[in-house]
Amino acid sequence: MFETVAIPVWAFILIGLFAAISILERVIGPSIRWFFRKRAERVVAELNKRLDRPIQPFKLARRYDMIQRLIHDGEVAHAIVDHARNEGIPEEVAREKAARYAREIVPRFSATAYFGFGTRAAKWISDTLFHVQVGETEEDVLTGIDPDATVVFVMNHRSNMDYLLVTWLAARSSALSYAAGEWARVWPLSALVRTMGAYFIRRKQLNPLYRKVMARYIQMATDGGVTQAVFPEGGLSLDGRLAPLKLGLLSYLVAGFRPERRDIVFVPVALNYDRVLEDRILLDAGQAGTRRFRASFSNVTAFILRQLLHRLRGRLYRFGHAAVAYGPPLSLKAFAETHPEDTTEALGEELRARLSGTIPVLPVPLMALVLEDAQGPLSEAELAAAMADRLTALRAAGARLHMPSGELSRATAAAVKRLELRRLITVDETGIAIAPDRDLMMGFYANSIRHLGQTGDQ
After folding, report:
1. Residue 77 and residue 83: Cα distance in Å, rounded?
2. Domain count along the chain
3. Same-domain status, 154 and 206
């Protein structure tokens, strides 16, 4: 019993390693977790002093606890039983599938990562690539909204830059929770996205069990007062137009709405750009009739490195303006009282109308629209006059202009230079016109504001 046993050195090292891990996990681990938990609570307490809408306890709940709460929810439990019966599988197998869905959906929010790194990176990237313009501040928009209400920002989806712009601009009032598509489920991006408070959604998942788990998570977060941001188009616009809104997420919100507990206030947020970074990729996908985008990780990485190199050399040429405009808020409580039937469909139509009318007017989209309507090449003076006339008509129609009349000539010259550099227009002795075979690209930008000032939504 007390004899010496000889073992290989590698086995001794492994035993010692496992013993050390066990000691750390059971003895030191709880103290370390407690230390970081208290530190995180202090960070949140300081942040909540300056945020207009404090971070809700639901958003700060431990991820494991949130997953367990979701799995054992009564409605999810019924969905598990139904799924097991319909698929002819044991309930334990169906429950494990629901748990897998919950682990995939539930984020791992870190206030330190969100406000310490995420919002600063979003601001730096946005300012580096664009001249950012905002119609009014978020504080102005949220003034008058019940502080106990859950705010849901409803946004059009022009570019993946949308996430960065709104994250930065909203950081002064709250922390947003996004619905991230399957594009973000790639490691290590998935870990970063979860840390920023986003939850993953499979847009092509038709499984009723998955839909129930997703619906209950969104309803719990909304009931907990978590400020959210959604792209109800369901994906990036492939032609520049605002697409019909998909009602999935809106139906979850309406189905779980309890007016006696907490109101839901929708705030339209419209975005537009002088340059959509993915424009060629989006047009190719639209031409192919598929949403398969040809962007590769290596291409994206090379683009980012080129921009960083230009920044370091002081040769970075911004891509023009990026604008954000807020539309009039809509209270679900008040809306449901006037639309007791077909609330989701009516809500989708109303939000789309408010969002469509709030799209910002920028130099490049305006110039693209004017050149499309022109019968031939325009001189610089004719182009400036045509843009001024269109601006006057848009102003009279109540459009959100991000082109002050006093700066029109300068904005026109800058837009001409950008479009000429991209070979989207020709500039010669005959005048300025859309370059051959570039009608589709110019239409992509013109489509973003084509409907403004017209009767009915195009």
Report:
1. 10
2. 2
3. yes
